[in-house]
Design goal:
Elements (H helix, E strand, L loop, with lengths): L1 H36 L9 H5 L5 H45 L3 E6 L4 E4 L1 H7 L3 H4 L10 H17 L8 E7 L5 E13 L2 E10 L1 H23 L3 E6 L4 E4 L1 H7 L3 H4 L11 H14 L1 E10 L5 E12 L5 E10 L1 H35 L6 H15 L4 H13 L9 H4 L7 H7 L2 H9 L8 H6 L21 H16 L10 H10 L7 H12 L7
Antiparallel strand pairs: 1-2, 1-5, 3-4, 4-5, 6-7, 6-10, 8-9, 9-10
Length: about 550
Amino acid sequence: MIKDRINHRDRFTQSMLLFGLGLGVIYWIIDSVLYTLTAKGPADLSPLMSLVSTEGIWQRFVVVCFLVIFGSHVQYTVKKRREVEQSLSETEERYRALVENSTDAIISVNDQMQVIQWNRAASELFGFSKELMMGKPIDVIIPEKFKEQHREGLRRFLASGQTSLVGRTAELEGLRKDGTTRPIEVSLSHDNTHGVSTFTAIIRETTERRKALEALRESEERYRNLFEDSKDAVLIWTVDSKILGVNQATLEIFGCSIEDMIGSEISDIYVEKTDYSKFQTRLDREGAIRGYEITLKKKNGTLLDCLFTATVRKGKDGKILGYQGIARDVTELKHNERELKRTMDVLRKSIGGITQAMSSMVESRDPYTAGHQKRVADLARAIAKDMGLTPDQIDAVRMAGTLHDIGKMAVPAEILTSPARLTEKAFELIKDHPQTAYNILQEIEFPWPIADIVLQHHERMNGTGYPSGITGDDIRVEARIIAVADVVEAIASHRPYRAALGIDKALEEIQDKRGTMYDPAVVDSCVKLFNDSQYKIK
């Protein structure tokens, strides 16, 4: 429409300029003719000469100039109006595009509450097309329970010109075409141009935002409950070391009131200021510390063994805003650990004493091999340590080595002390000693699988051992170690039926049968102990 008016103005401007020029020329000619007809000069004065006659020429010139100026002014005025209308047209186009492409629903209604503007987002939000809604009452999108309230608000506005919704944002509900409702946020404005009232609403669905807010509230509630209900002390402090917040457990653990804690120095709960400085420096450097063992103190000076976990709180710009930490009181746990360690030490000593007594009982029946079990236990322990076994496994190897021949208590003494080679029948009796030892040891509740290790110490990698003939990894690694240590000690030491053969012969024996009868890793470790570490059997 505005473009049509602009084109019309262009044509009118051109016409007005030509009209002014034409009117000036016509005026000149008519004035000259009238002057000629009324002239009192010579009768032969021609009309052509009258056109340039000096008499009256300035009057005609002024009139013509006036008409030309008038036409130019009209042209200029129309041109400026055209520019304004062109700008208005562009603004209108931008406004229309802005409204149509807005992600928010934009709806305008007249004072009869009939829709006069309905954008695409409104169609998407409420499910009604623009063609269907134009000219229709707006209350089609208002839930039934709010319609009377809406009508009363309109009547009050028409009567007083005032409404509580205009100029502010309100959270309401909107009715969709399918009959469902959506939570919406409405910003309402009013325009009264030429006495005609128009209401425009910018509407945004708030379903997701409400969900997010509800989730945030739930999260905050969970965090608050976690903070308050925690059995550990939770502390929040500032960059200048002032305590900003604590939970109830903090007050109970440190024996303080809330007034004592809030605003006090976080370093006050440390035994030494240097402990605080060291902890804070590391926290700033690493950003988080977990399970830091530290001794803190209560208000009355009582010391607390604590595990401190803390993190740095940073802003979006990466600047440190403060710190938060959780201190767990493990004083009782530490005490229990110390008591348990003391008990375990006593138990180990007791077991060691009992084990040594049992070993001595065996050796008392075979004085020629006295000390054999202890020497096997020492060598086996050294091999286990060199192989990198765990402390528990090393202890198990030492204990099983000390008891590995306890089953010989059931073998007649004359067989054990016989200076001659054993007969096949006597050897069969000797082969029963691992099973006998197992039967004795399985009734004792050791902290390690001693009975199983002793049972397997004569098994061999290729299955030629006894009593079960098991192979490879089916044999416990502790038993494989004792097997090598037992053979080395036996060959290197004196026996009733032969003199000692020496350590070189013993190492040669296990190297020859490495991988077939003896575990390769155990053999290599044993050889290294004697060759590189200068180990000696004592």
